[in-house]
Amino acid sequence: MEARARFEAQALARFAEDVLSAAGMDRALAEVVAATLLEGDLLGHDTHGLALLAPYLGEIERGSMTTEGEVEVISDRGASLLWDGHRLPGPWLVSIGIDALIARAQNYGSATLVIRRSHHIACLAAYLSRATERGLVIVIASSDPQSASVAPFGGTQALFTPDPIAIGIPSSTTPFLIDISASSVTNGMSARLKREGRRFAVECLFDAKGQPSADPQVLFDDPPGTIQPLGGVDFGHKGFGLALMIEALTGGLAGVGRADPKEGWGASVFISIHDPSAFGGSMGFSRQIDWIADSARGNPPRAETEGVRLPGDRALKRKREQLLSGVALYPEIIVALKTCASKYHVGLPAPLLG
Description:
By secondary structure, the protein is an alpha+beta fold.
């Protein structure tokens, strides 16, 4: 693999913040959005990090993303909240939502927020440490009621988005940072491979007739194909069930979703935070989770693997390395950032030497 150019992390964050601000986003919101996008790259989710900066700027230019303002509180029952995000930036909405829930979870034991009409929320894993660092369990799920690329199991017409769900679980060592989806692959990776003329290594898509395919081009054909649900041809009922659950927690609880007129790229969001001290106690929780972690990591490995790696182990190691040696950006992201820099007259940081 060709070595990637590396950039100092905080310089990238400042660049993204300055560009978003130059495009018209309130500086306080831009700071949060930039930090969230950078976190995606730091953790290795490079289709959902700074790769999203140019698309977000396009949304601002089209007036499809609200660049300033406040959330509207639709319902507040203490431990349960419903907000209307009015298409404000998703990373900002999720971040302030987590802040609001932490104090409530510590008070009530559990607290849940649903956000309707959020804009896109980027990488779900980027938010998890905000809770796990405080010894709290967090669940985030998202759906985009405005688009569809995944068919229900047994069908051929797209009904759902990949519907990601992420869970942050604190432990005495590395927290579990689980970020999965109800689909086999993501729209972001499918689009990247299509642009590069590449195929997936396995048949994780369906063409328009429901035949398995590894070619992302099928998603862009007329009529389009679909992404296979998690579990694929034989076990896709599992992903279908997960999608139904996520749709209920997001659009269902929000009361705004796929049954309504389309408003543009965005999200319905579910966030729930739980304080172990309100249940079996923090020590009891740690004893159970640490036992599982130790037993998993110590599990005899299959011959063709390096052994069991818990979700979050590699991502946090990559983050530590990139904070020290620079963020290794995917080449097409650098090209897009240069275009953003030129358009908004903001200097792109120079790559690190060596």
